[in-house]
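Structural prep section.
Before we set up the soaks we want a predicted structure of the protein with nicotinamide-adenine-dinucleotide in place, mainly to decide which crystallisation condition to try first. Input record follows.
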Amino acid sequence: MQLESNLKNKKILVTGGAGFIGSHIVDILMKEECKVIVFDNLSSGYTEFIEHHTGNPNFEFINGNLLTPHEINMACNDIDFVFHVAANPDVKLGAVDTKVHFDQNITATYNLLEAMRKNNVTNIVFTSTSTVYGEAEIIPTPENYGPLIPISLYGASKLACEALITSYSHTFDMKSWIFRFANIIGERSTHGIIVDFIQKLKDNPHELDILGDGRQSKSYLHVSECVKAIMFALNNSNEAVNIFNVGSEDTINATEIGEIVVDEMGLEDVEFTYTGGKRGWKGDVPRMLLGIDKLKDTGWVPEYSSRRSVKETVKSLICR
Ligand code: NAD
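Run finished without errors. Recording the tokens verbatim:
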């Protein structure tokens, strides 16, 4: 894939670049010979995910925290483009810790935007989420759906980040690309339903406890598809604020994911038990499918169904 005007030969800061999705973004940017600086505090990221770039003169790693303003201020010096991927992505956590998403998502994003403003950095890509829509009444849900009524503290925090980014874009002549992701899965996944199911079945290969009634049905997209989609959108949109949904065109439910994991692990006679209720946890949205026509208009063609994304992910995770 060719990177065109927006990124070619640019110096790019990737916050959260040592995490699951961030490290795949770093890989594609490095392949295109961008200068990449990863800024990550390794709270849920791993140096192993980026160590293959160590020694490349186009690559630098900064062990820094977005909650420490002078660290991110220094990192933004002489940067052309920021991919803001760092966050606490654990949706469930908001029900037991009400401050974590406020700090790690909203305050962290504010600190970054201030650092960008002070250093005259004018381009930002932000990894947002389907949870900003809450329990949408229109499915597939398009980007212009409203009102946006998140039901998790995580979704609320990411919507607040979006609002900060769009208002900074307007007020300080920045340009922003906001990507609202469905469930992104694949090699290097460290959290989420598949990681959870594999761990549970390793602990007890006879039983799988599924949160909710197992019928929660959502869109899943392989990370390789996700990063391609981002690049297509970046190369083919240039408004002051560009918002894109990123997902597959179908859904798969929790029980079906359980069946794929059992099958790929070669297990038999596994009993599925359910915690009950239509949600896995408080703040869980039972049905999620994003409208991706806007993304497809950029020329991106989704190659993976949710099922294929899940299967490939399970295969790569069980052998690691
Ligand atoms: P991840 O936890 O693997 O990555 C987050 C990275 O951010 C980690 O490397 C972590 O160490 C770093 N980080 C966290 N707080 C930091 C701080 N204060 N300072 C510096 N670095 C910090 O998560 P992921 O699944 O790769 O998610 C990446 C982004 O995509 C997040 O913004 C998340 O909200 C968003 N997202 C993910 C999904 C998904 O399905 N994985 C879906 C929707 C949106």
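Observations: The mean pLDDT is 96.
Flagged for discussion at group meeting.
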